[in-house]
Structure formats: C-alpha cells, structure tokens
Amino acid sequence: MTNKLFLTAVMFIAWYSLVDGRVTDTGPLLSDMEVMYEGVSREYCQFEDAQIFRDSSWTTFDCRRCTCNSNGLSCWIPESEVPDGCMRIYDFDCYERIVQSDNLDLDCSTNDVITGK
Rounded to whole angstroms, how far apart are CA atoms 59 and 77? Predict the structure, then answer.
C-alpha cells in the first residue's frame, strides 16, 4: 500500500513543460519491494503508464529523449534557439529543422530550399 501511495505521489509531483531545451519530465528511481527475488529488488522509473527499467534510454513519439538511471527519470527536448520570423519543426526521425515561419520549405539561416537531412 505504501509503495502504491508513493508511486501516486510521484505521478502528481512529476511536472511537464515543453520549454525550449529544458527537462520535460522528472521522477525518482523507484524500487518494487513486492517482486524481490533473493534479496534483490527491481528498480524502475514510472513513465506515463509504463515501468521502465533502470539504465534504459528512449525517444518518445514527440521527440523527447528520456533516461532512467540511478538519478531517476529525466526527459528533455534538445532544441536550438529560434530567431524571429522562424519556427522549429521535427521530421519523423526527430531531426530538428529551423525554417522560415512563412515558408516551411526554406531553411531559416541560409534561405536555401530544404531537400533532405
């Protein structure tokens, strides 16, 4: 019961903010005492509805990069500074592009047409 209460508290404490280049999710490393095997507990991070094992890393569908390690859960979006008149877009591989706001086919820094990575 205490473990479930703690897990619920962690979920409410976790904060989400899609701020440029900042951490978007955090949480502690948890230990599930109920599944102890020979005195070893399972360590994991709670991410959305999943328990992610310690020493894992992944990229989410919305391009957040996440890790679960001895420091707990950390997810962030690596983003570059966006000049006025430009905007940030991502392709399906989470490759960041800074394009002109009024023409998404033009690179913001070079004014060249974007043809690929």
Answer: 10
55-60 LR contacts (CB < 8 Å, sep 24+)? 59/94
**Boundary residue ending a domain (76, 92, 108):** 76
- For β-strands 72-76 and 40-47, DSSP reports them as unpaired
Same domain for 63 and 22? yes
What value, to the nearest 5°, has the Cα angle with vertex 21 and ends 19 and 25? 65
pLDDT tens-place string over residues 52-101:
999 999 999 888 999 999 999 999 987 888 999 999 888 888 888 899 99
Give buried/exposed letters for 79-103 (b at 16+ CB in 10 A, else e): beeeeeebeeeeeeeeeebbbbeee
Are residues 105 and 62 part of one domain?
no
